[in-house]
Fold this protein.
Amino acid sequence: MDKERIRTLEGLLEVLGHTFDDVDLLDLSLTHGSYANENPDLVRGDNERLEFLGDAVLQLCISDMLMEKFPEYSEGQLSKARASLVNEQSLATLARQYRIGGFMLLGRGEENSEGRNKDSILGDAFEALIGAIYLDGGYKPALGFVRRAFQSPVDEWAQKPVYRDYKSLLQETSQSQFREIPHYRIAGTSGPDHDKIFEIELSIGDIVSTRGTGKSKKEAEQDAARKTLEKLDKT
């Protein structure tokens, strides 16, 4: 890594609250695969492995925070809270707050397609950054960073009801845990036109399939989402 790159990263180091012993880890966490593919002689890889590690570390850190803040919550409530807090959109929002996009190394294609502002790229980079902090200093610095970054989101979430719209909550859970979105389809209807009952089949990839019923399509979808969340809690 050249001196110009080091000077650039110093701007990010000032706001992270962590001093890297190995600044190369920070640089790697901000190196997108498109840049690594185009410049194999300039970098030692991309941030995908760090993103994989950071995802696991983040899940543990958020679990730590939630168990401390909500000692009365059940396992199911903790899982729902974590899924609501840790998703692509929330990670991308935090990445923007730290201005991570401006420090990333992107290939020409991603650069031209505004990759610096894509939720997927920013969210992955944020997780990779957590993985880099963990490798550089261990769990304690990683937890400290996650606490600082997520303190406001956790406090804001605490002001909301634990059980919210089932469809929204299931979508957050599904994206966080399985990187899939739920799919709904009408499986059938019954009863007269003035008192019709809708049956909705809900599926998440090949992971789970559930059916819900209601007097409207929306009500049946909510029922299916509720049953799916209960099923996921049990497993």
